[in-house]
Amino acid sequence: MKTLAEYEELAAVAHGHLCAGQILGLRMAVHGLALLGIDDPTGTQRKRLVTFVEIDRCATDAISVVTGCRLGKRALKFLDFGKMAATFCDLETGRAVRLAAKESSKQRAAELYPEITEKNKQQMKAYRELSEAELFDVQWVKVRVGPEDLPGFKGPPVACAECGEGISFQREVLVDGRTLCRGCAGQRYYEPLSDHGPEERG
Predict the structure, then answer these.
(1) Residue range 10-36, pLDDT digits in tens
(2) Which residues contact 57 (CB under 8 A, 6 or more apart)?
(3) With pLDDT > 70 as the criterion, what percentage of the chain qualifies?
């Protein structure tokens, strides 16, 4: 593992700047891995770890820097719960620990450094110094990570009976005896328009 200062440099490059959320994410990941006993997540232990993140904010990029988990590697799982929280899963031991940032840490930052009027700088300084107990709630949890969710899973795609698009990683659903993608099963995040795109407005 690297020092916090070293991780900050890497996070600033990966994210484009350094902020309080990233420092919180770095601290969260370092503590989570320490609790699991993983000290080389991007090297010899890189295949042991799957991480679930619950928010699409700065902290998530920082967590990736420490853990080496990436969406494209299928080792980072994003569940949009809107919480500054992450669960670190050790595939070798089956243990998993969830860390959630305490809302009270913002108030602690204000109490510690009232002279720093810019909230981001105030929180950055405090998040470097506060103890893990002041920053995070920690809970040991059980997470089912099936073979279809693991990096390197090899499974044949199936075609959606409605749209014909391929579906990988066993994400299809069965509706009235038909194999559908989640979009055609009513879980679309988009609304289809005509094949020619949106109509021009005069």
Answers:
(1) 999 988 889 999 999 999 999 999 999
(2) 21, 84
(3) 96
Distance, in Å, from the CA atom of 22 to the CA atom of 169, rounded to the nearest integer, reads 31
Tokens of 189: 């995040």
- What sign does the CA torsion over 126, 128, 134, 139 have? positive
Provide the whole-model pTM.
Answer: 0.83
4-15 vs 58-67: helix axis angle to the nearest 10? Answer: 120
Q: And the tokens for 3?
A: 């020092």
Asked whether 77 and 51 are in contact (CB, 8 A), the reply is yes
Q: What is the 3-state secondary structure (H, E, C) of the chain?
A: CCCHHHHHHHHHHHHCCCCHHHHHHHHHHHHHHHHHCCCCCCCCCCCCEEEEECCCCHHHHHHHHHHCCCCCCCCEEECCCCCCEEEEEECCCCCEEEEEECCHHHHHHHHHCCCCCCHHHHHHHHHHHCCHHHHEEEEEECCCCCHHHCCCCCCCCEECCCCCCEECCCCCEEECCEEECCHHHHHCCCCCCCCCCCCCCC
199's tokens: 């109509």
Distance between CA atoms of residues 53 and 69, nearest Å = 11
Distance from chain centroid for Cα 5:
21
Residue 190 to residues 20, 166, 180, 183: CA-CA distances in angstroms?
A: 33, 18, 16, 9
